[in-house]
Design a protein that fits this description.
Largest sheet: none
Helix content: 55-70%
Protein name: Abi-like protein
Strand content: under 5%
Number of helices: 11
Oligomer: single chain
Radius of gyration: 21 Å
Organism: Corynebacterium doosanense CAU 212 = DSM 45436
Distance between the termini: 19 Å
Number of strands: 0
Structural class: mainly alpha
Length: 243
Amino acid sequence: MKPESRDKVLKHLGAARLEPYLAEAGGNKKAALNLYRWSVQLTASVQQLLGLTEVMLRNSIDEQLQLWNNEARAQETSWLLDEPANPLRSLVEDKRKRAHHDAEKALTIRPPGHPRHGDELTHDDVLAHTMFGMWKDLLPNHAPNMSQEDQRNQNRLRMWNESLSAAFPHAEDPDGQKTYWRVAHLHLLRNRVSHMDSLLNVDVDDRANDAFDLVGSIDPVLRNWLTGTSTVSQILNHKPEVR
C-alpha cells in the first residue's frame, strides 16, 4: 500500500483508536496498521468464542431456573414470559422485562416470508434477547467492594444454593466464587470487543481459558468441542512482529 493510501486509512480509523497500535509499533504506520488488522481478526475470533459460551451458559442456567420456578410457583410457567417467584424476580426483573420487550419488537417486524411470521412470543424468543450481564448479576457477587451481607447478594447466594449451582455440576464451587469470576471476566471482555477496543493489553489467552473452564464446568464435552472450535490461540500465535 502506498504511504498516502495508508495515511487515509489511518485517518478514517481514527487517531484515538490507532494510538495504542502506533505506540506498540514505535510510530511505524505500516506496522501499526498490520497490528490493527491482526487485532480485528482476534476480536472476531473472541466474539465467536464469547457468543458460543454465552449460548451454553444461558441454556444451562435457564434449565435450572425453569425447574426452580416451577417448584416455587407450584405450576409450570415460564420465568421469562411471566413474573417469576422471588427472589429471582427481584434480581432479574428489569433485565427480564427489557428482553421481553425486545423479543416482542423483533416479533412484530418479522417479514411475511419469515418461517415464524405471525407466531406467538415464546420463552425461547425472550431467552435469545437476554443480555450477558443478566447471568453475571444472578451469581453471588464476590467483588472486593461487595458486602456478602447485602440483601441482593444474599438472594443471589440463595439462588446459587437452590438452583444455579446445578447448572455447573462439574465445578467445585460451593459459594459460586469461581463461576462468578469466570463470568465477570468474560462480561468485561464482551463489552470490550463489542466496542472494538484494543486487546493489546488484555490477556486474551487467560480469558479464553475462562470460557473453556466455564463451559467445562457445565459439561467436559462442551469444553472439548469449544476448544476445538476456537481459533483464538492460532490468531494469538500469529501476532505481527514489530521491529
